[in-house]
Specification:
By secondary structure, the protein is an alpha+beta fold. It has helices at about 1-25, 35-40, 45-70, 75-90, 90-105, 155, 160-225, 235-250, 260-275, 300-310, 350-365, and strands spanning about 255, 280-285, 295, 320-325, 330-340, 370-375, 380-385. It folds into two domains: about 1-190, no CATH class; about 230-385, Heat Shock Protein 90 (2-Layer Sandwich). A hairpin with a 2-residue loop joins strand 6 and strand 7 (about 380-385). Helix 7 (about 160-225) packs across helix 11. The longest helix is centred in the middle third of the chain and has 67 residues, at about 160-225.
Length: about 375
């Protein structure tokens, strides 16, 4: 942020130096080198610079934030009109041009034409001298004493008034555009930050829901083994230890190595094998190279938990199919099981499919495909994640 502010200050300084150099170049008296130093000593030059610097920053940092952005358009318009009237009264560019003209006329040999009729050799041969005083329409001519040189300078150059007003419009428009663009970018950054904070909070909440639900079910399984004094209880505790280490240490990240996720799934399936009877056949296969790939932690566990929760029977033979296929472009997960248990909607279901969809939408927006369908009492899930 400090670098951005320093860069912005440099841009402002460079822009104003260019703006201040413009009248010096524009009013350079055709190669007279001392005109620049002379103008720098003139009050009119600094009046010209300070006027438009004041207009730029007062509009950008006071009028726009206080009035325009707060939709006080009437008050903003009145203030701009007052500034417009002030510039019209000061005429900073006209005063600067007047100072330059006076400086030029003060130079030796640049006193301008003498009053009175022009010399005879200045007139066109055979042409009558220009009339003195007002013409037949009552206007003063530009030649001779009729010019009325004693009149104020700005009264003789009213056509130049529009330049000061044109610069006023350009300065106000530029400062307004810059401030509105800055405000738009700030609003956009705040919206992105708020969305990111919301997403992070939702993911943290979903993970907090996942961990207790997963551990609760696993501990129930080990409790059952301990009650029946199964010989595999110690092995089950070791596998649970591995799962808990993965859940507590690695699940804090949005993405984890796919190998860690596969190991967690394998331990979970082995724990389930100790609980289920020989009537249930579990076909768990992995295809492809899982090294170097990453995935959202526990995103597959919801489906695997449901497979063992609703697809296991103590009286009927059944098969559970779980397949993970890895390619260079995607990770494909597929599971299928026969449905034996009808879920009671009044019972809590952990994070459920809904929250899993939420996680997938947050972590893989537009880069995943989830299909869930049931046919002939067979429940199937297919999830494809692009990597």
């Amino acid at each position: 942020m400090s670098r951005f502010k320093a860069f912005s200050v440099i841009i402002h300084i460079a822009g104003w130096l260019l703006f201040m150099a413009f009248p010096l170049l524009f009013l350079n008296n055709r190669g007279q080198d001392d005109i620049t130093w002379s103008l720098l000593q003139k009050h009119s030059y600094w009046l010209f610079c300070y006027t438009y610097v004041f207009l730029f920053y007062s509009n950008a940092y006071f009028l726009i934030p206080k009035f325009f952005l707060k939709k006080k358009y009437a008050l903003y318009s009145i203030t701009v009109l007052l500034l417009f009237a002030g510039v019209y009264y000061l005429q900073p560019f006209d005063r600067l041009l007047h100072s330059a003209e006076n400086r030029t006329n003060d130079q030796p040999g640049n006193q301008g034409p003498p009053l009175g009729p022009p010399p005879a050799d200045y007139r066109n041969a055979g042409a009558p001298p220009p009339p003195e005083g007002p013409d037949h329409e009552g206007r003063f001519t530009d030649d001779g004493p009729g010019q009325n040189p004693s009149a104020p300078w700005h009264a003789r150059h009213r056509s130049l008034d529009s330049i000061s007003l044109f610069i006023f419009i350009m300065i106000m428009a530029l400062s307004t555009a810059i401030k509105i663009i800055q405000q738009w970018r700030l609003t956009e950054r705040r919206a992105i930050r708020a969305e990111a904070d919301k997403t992070t909070a939702e993911l943290s909440f979903l993970k907090a829901q996942i961990n207790p639900h997963f551990l609760f079910n696993t501990l129930n399984n080990i409790y059952t083994l301990a009650v029946i004094k199964d010989d595999h209880t110690a092995d089950s505790i070791m596998k649970l230890s591995n799962i808990m280490r993965y859940v507590t240490d690695d699940v804090v990240d949005d993405l984890v190595p796919l190998q860690s996720e596969v190991d967690c799934i394998s331990d979970y399936i082995e724990l389930q094998r100790l609980r289920i009877s020989d009537r249930t056949i579990v076909n768990f296969t992995i295809e492809g190279n899982v090294e170097g790939k990453k995935i959202a932690p526990l995103v597959l566990m919801t489906f695997i938990e449901n497979v063992f929760k609703y697809g296991v029977s103590k009286h009927e033979k059944t098969a559970i199919d779980i397949n993970i296929r890895v390619s260079d472009t995607d990770i494909s997960f597929f599971c299928r099981n026969h449905v034996f248990v009808t879920r009671d909607e009044s019972q809590p279901t952990g994070i459920g499919i809904k929250n899993t969809r939420q996680r997938l939408n947050h972590l893989y927006p537009g880069s995943h495909l989830l299909n869930i369908w049931s046919e002939n009492d067979q429940h199937s899930v297919q999830l494809i994640i692009k990597i």
